[in-house]
Amino acid sequence: MRRIPVRSLAVLATVGTLVLTGCGTETGDPADSTPAVAGADRTIRAHEVMQLTKVHEETGMTLLEGPTFDGTGKLLVVDVTAPAGKPKVIRVDVRKRTSQAVHTDARGAYTSAQFSPYDGRLYLTDYAHGEVVSLAPDGSDPRTFFSGDVDGARMNPDDIAFDEEGNLYVSDSRGLSTGDAHGRVVRIERDGKESTVLAEGLASTNGVSFDADYEGLWISELTQNRISYLRLDGKGGVASKHTAVRVDGGIAQTDSIAVDAAGNIYQALHGRAAMVVYDRHGERLATIEVPARAKGLESATNVAITPGGTRAYMTVSGPAGGFLYTFDALAKGVRQSNGG
Length: 340
Description:
Order of helices and strands: EEEEEEEEEEEEEEEEEEEEEEEEEEEEE
Shape: globular
Number of domains: 1
Distance between the termini: 28 Å
Radius of gyration: 18 Å
CATH architecture: 6 Propeller
Strand content: over 45%
């Protein structure tokens, strides 16, 4: 399989074949982790919950993404590289440490998952086909919510953020395979009938999340290793944009983003099984890492923090397989830290 050396979420469909770019053994209570305090970059050790997937023979890898809690407290995740017939959406009972298949199909390469506050359905981005699809909470009734060009160009939709009315804000990673700055942020009306480009010329847009007050969007630009901030105008548009944080990732690159109740930004890293946490002013507060002896894990793609609680669950993947790790977040979970 030919690999494009940029990031694990780069998914392309060619001649019906998926081409994608791109264990831990410690268990324990995350309360034993070193706490993070404001004004200090501390290390928080995440602890293994369970292994969810193994490397797929058909695609040569596994890649977990999009953790999000449903209304019953179960955690759903997607496996971006799962082939047809293998679970592409998985439901996890984190207390019992059990999992079950929720959805599969013959074509989708799903890179994120989040429940809509408008209709309660589970929304998935299909990176390979430029679509957003939705499922009933139990995984049934698949529907194509949005497909087609946006301003004359097909999307490579990566992550999703919902506003309080249920409109979608999608990170479009156009240009990832070529390295060109063609990335966008696209707003899709909650009925799926209209779309608007809010920002363009971005460097491989990846993570997207509202801030704690829904006043703006944090977005990560993977090929520039930076987090930008789009201040919204309250009318469905953007009032301003600026680079907010420059991430010193070394060989790692900025993946998905989550935001907790205190407004802290959790930046996942592709190329390192870790996340970094910043406050809204760009001060680095903590680094979250898996134990050093957890071999074969290369990327921490995303995180979901328990709604109203601080227990966080991080998706981690690599040649060892796809794993779920847990740690204590710096503040409580809200919608902005539950999927995307």
